[in-house]
Amino acid sequence: MSAPTGPVGVGLIGVGVISDTYLEHLNSFPDVTVLAVGDLDLERARTQAEKYDVPTWGDAQVVLDHPEIQVVVNLTVPAVHAEISSAAIAAGKHVWTEKPLGLDRESTSALLSAADEAGLRVGCAPDTVLGPGVQTAKREIAKGTIGRPLFAQTSMQWQGPEVFHPNPGFLFAKGAGPLLDIGPYYFTTLVSLFGTVEKVAAMGLRAQTERAIQVGPKAGDTFPVEVPSTISVLTQFEGGQQGNSLVSFDSPLARQGIVEIHGTEGSLVVPDPNMFEGRIAYVKPFESFGEAPPEQEWIEVPQQGVVAGRGTGLLDMVRAIAEDRPHVASGEVGYHVLDVMLSAEESAASGEFVAVNSSVSEVPLVAEDFDPFASTL
Q1: pLDDT in tens, 45-63
Q2: What range(s) does the GFO/IDH/MocA-like oxidoreductase domain occupy (predicted)?
Q3: Which CATH class is domain 129-300?
């Protein structure tokens, strides 16, 4: 497919809850135009099309067959991510897919191979790493603000989605759980900052084998817990850094969005990786002190860049096609993050370190003048 010379035609497959934020933001970007939405539920597709002034609606095939759509946005359930993305590649479309890229190495690897052979791009959420929050933090690390990065600590813990979601069973099924549902935000951030993960070790637990829905018309109904609802993951990076990450749906104490990078000359707080912006600050080591250490001084780092939202990674991808450069939230990164998480599942099951066989090229920085709301094509 030739490089775009005007607004790029986009179609969405899957118009569940997350489609609202995608449609809202994509409609605000001059470099793309949403031409069609498709869903198994045709009435839902029609409703979303009317709500966001999308001219065409129908099932998935309507999107795949649309001659002016160049990029398919895959917002289906994770179990069919690889299937729908592969169908889009077969139809000659670039793909932007919600996370995870797929649920197994075989189908996702085949997807990327097919895209390469067809000369098409694959992008994968989360694209929060393109936001000014993570990008500003990444620039601070590159500047040497905290010296040589040594290790990272991340945490996302709370009591679980059944307290607000009317049908949360799928979030505890194979292919989900806190690791594959929430983990991509944290591991994508770490891979963006440190690069390739070489090996992982993990421990997991299921606090309950069944859980009960707390809200909505099905309140009181139970569902099975098929995967660990708490998992701790150690990561060893190719560059020598280490990571310690916790994701849990079992904690009465809610604590989310913790990403800390500790280096030889300071410790840096990175914003919540589920957000596009947030606080960036660091502390320096003590030089010396008397009987008791003084309170450490936090040095705030001004956030730099334009804040947008979901769909920013897709926008970067279509601009990268026009500029013949790599895009940031690539299929390669999405596959590596999936490989890391599957390796963590395998480690938790075996009790042993598991080597991660995939790798990534250096993840590029977003250009400092990147403006999602500018017309560039």
Answers
A1: 999 999 999 999 999 999 9
A2: 134-269
A3: alpha beta
